[in-house]
Amino acid sequence: MHKSMSSWLLIGGVIALALGPLMVLQGHQFGATDGNFVTAIEENHPNYQPWFKPVIKDSGPEVQTFLFAAQAGIGAGVAGYILGLYKGRSERREKNEQ
Fold it and tell me: What predicted TM-score, i.e. pTM, was given to this entire model?
């Protein structure tokens, strides 16, 4: 298969994976998993008392969005570093073999 054809198939796959869930869940509200767990626990066990209180008080959706974005950025940075490291090693190995 040609290199350009495989690139277009890869791009199409990424687009399908990104847009697929949005098309299937059209009109549904996305919610946080923590909120769903709290609701389920309160319904099934109304006398439940938490074992401890959160260290950081919830400051609102802006803080949650920032923390999620920070985690994603750190994860992407680590993944990019590792991929670059292995790519550089393989290129150096190929250069030394020539």
Answer: 0.48
